[in-house]
Amino acid sequence: MKIGAEADIYVTSWNGRKSILKIRKRKDYRNELLDNRIRRLRTTREAKMISEVKSFGISTPLVYFVDQKKCEIFLQYVPGKLVRDLPNGTIIKACKKIGRIVGTLHKNGIMHGDLTTSNFILTREGLIIIDFGLAQKTEKVEDHAIDLRLFKEVLNSAHIDIVGKSWESFLNGYEKIVGTPRKERVISQVSVIEKRGRYANVV
Fold it and tell me: Using 50, 70 and 90 to split pLDDT, how confident is the model at 199?
């Protein structure tokens, strides 16, 4: 289904249920013992994050089984459409809901780490967020700004025709959850990060 830098994704079955299998790949450039430890820790952490996020009222796939030795996770298969592939008008509306989801994550001290329109699935029940492989617990404004900066970059690259309206919609939803003062602090830090990037490109 997907070959990624950190993991490969397959459609399979678990106890008769259609399932997603996520396998963290070995990294040949790392010491084998260190590599095994890192992959096991990240696999366990991801499964815990997915389950914890549900307690905040956010929809995520069910975790069916975690194999620490093989660094594998069996997850619920979620039927629906990726936000990335929706019509422009629907994407703009979805971005407000995405903003509320991200705001809820940040309010509860979790950075997703890979916010893209490919990691949100629109189902009959609503939006479901997936892929917590890079998620971490953090209250830092800088880390939350990195989340927002990545999402803004994705809108600029994959949804250029609607980037302005989508970003405004996202921020509207985000502010509803975290409040205006916190949102302004995070957005201010996003600007700082963007300036660093421009300076680096010039140099």
Answer: very low
Domain coverage including residue 128? 81-202
The label of the residue with tokens 């201010």 reads 188
**Helix crossing, 88-107 with 141-158: angle to 10°?**
170
Identity at 130, one-letter amino acid code: I
Please tell me the total count of domains within the chain. 2
CATH, residue 52:
3.30.200.20
Q: What is the mean pLDDT of residues 43-67?
A: 94
| pLDDT value of position 26 | 84
**In this predicted structure, what is the pLDDT of residue 4?**
67
Q: Are residues 195 and 121 part of one domain? A: yes
Which pTM was predicted?
0.91
Per annotation, catalytic residue among 8, 35, 114, 131 = 114
Catalytic (active site) residue 147? no
**What CATH code is carried by the domain that includes residue 117?**
1.10.510.10
* HSE-CB of 155 using CA atoms within 13 angstroms: 23
Question: What percentage of the chain exceeds 70 in pLDDT?
Answer: 95
Say which residues have a Cβ less than 8 Å from residue 84's Cβ, sequence separation at least 6.
116, 117, 118, 158
